[in-house]
Write a structure and sequence with these properties.
Blueprint: H1 2-14, H2 19-42, H3 50-78, H4 83-106
Helix pairs in contact: 1-2, 2-3, 3-4
Membrane topology: Multi-pass membrane protein
GO cellular component, one term: plasma membrane
InterPro entries: GtrA_CellWall_Glycosyl, GtrA_DPMS_TM
């Protein structure tokens, strides 16, 4: 979450990148970091074919990114909830999506 938020803030606020592009950058870097940490410590799969795990993880993450951006769009643009509060909601919901899909369908 720190990587996601930190990079999103850096790209959006300091570098002037579009909020959805900044969100995508932060989310994407966090996903790769999460894969490494989950592969090593959380799930510890018996099958060591890391490429298959990463491809599945990436597929679920891309779907999660779509969900993430839709939630931010809905709350920030339609309901006028501040961007970073919308992002917190999106992170919480997508965390459940990512963990559940990877727990049951990947690792």
């Amino acid at each position: 979450m720190c990587i996601d938020f930190g990079l999103t803030w850096l790209f959006k606020e300091k570098l002037g990148v579009n909020k959805y592009a900044a969100n995508t950058i932060g989310f994407s870097v966090a996903v790769v970091n999460n894969f490494i940490l989950n592969y090593i410590w959380t799930f510890q799969p018996e099958d060591k074919n890391i490429q298959i795990f990463f491809l599945k993880f990436l597929l679920f993450a891309v779907i999660g990114l779509g969900i993430n951006n839709l939630i931010i769009y809905f709350f920030n643009e339609k309901i006028l909830v501040p961007f970073y509060f919308s992002k917190v909601l999106a992170i919480g919901i997508v965390f459940i999506w990512n963990f559940t899909t990877n727990n049951f369908l990947n690792f």
